[in-house]
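Sample A.
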Amino acid sequence: CLATLIIMLVGDTYTLINYVSFINYLCYGVTIIGLIVLRWKKPKIFRPIKVNLLIPVTYLAFWAFLLIFSLYSEPVVCGVGLIIILTGVPVFFLGVYWRNKPKCVNRLTESVTCWGQKLCFVVYPQGGATEED
């Protein structure tokens, strides 16, 4: 989010749309790959909707072509998009992966989370009366 704000202040909106489009399609492909892996590794789990594997495999073929074409035609935009994605790696390690954090780091991540929830209006009432009461 911070990287996007900096790019919006420095660059133009068209470039930001290109960055986000590349990131978006990259995530779509990774999601479809995850679907195929789960169908292969855990075939017995419940699936409310089950499609023929030919559909995601065909989608992945077109996705790979478009992604390779994007990387070839606009490598700088794709590179910046990958850098934007990679800015989330330290946040993941700080907030999720690192289990035995000092209390000051826990307090920092909790306050940043609370601040972000208040900013985006996604905070549930804490300790007050519930709707059922």
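Sample B, a different protein:
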Amino acid sequence: GTSISTKWRAPSNGLVKCNYDASHHRGNNDSGLGWIIRNCNGTFLDAGMGKFQGRHSPEESECSALIWALQSAWSLGYRKVEFEGDNLIINQLINNNRSNERLYHYLRLIHNWRSMFDTIKFTHRRRDSNNAQTF
């Protein structure tokens, strides 16, 4: 696929943007996750990549990536952040304060971390259409 920077949009004034993503693999296969923080000019500030054991669904993988991004951004001292991911379901659940039985634990954690930031936004970005993983 193309790199995450191809259609990058600048964050709102005064915010940094954290793009996060997870590659989902079921069961015992490792899934990958990562995040990258840039300022309003698109300048690279921080990033992290990691592996975790497979979750049950792409949504759970995406929540795991977001929680790690939230914790990392906060521990690095960022307090005004826009978190952008490519899972529409997750963004709708967070922004509409909806609950979801299977994602309850994840959403509660995200909600708790959300309150630690001064300004926080959750936005959705479509996964590039030429990416191998389409839903």
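Observation for Sample B: The radius of gyration is 14 Å.
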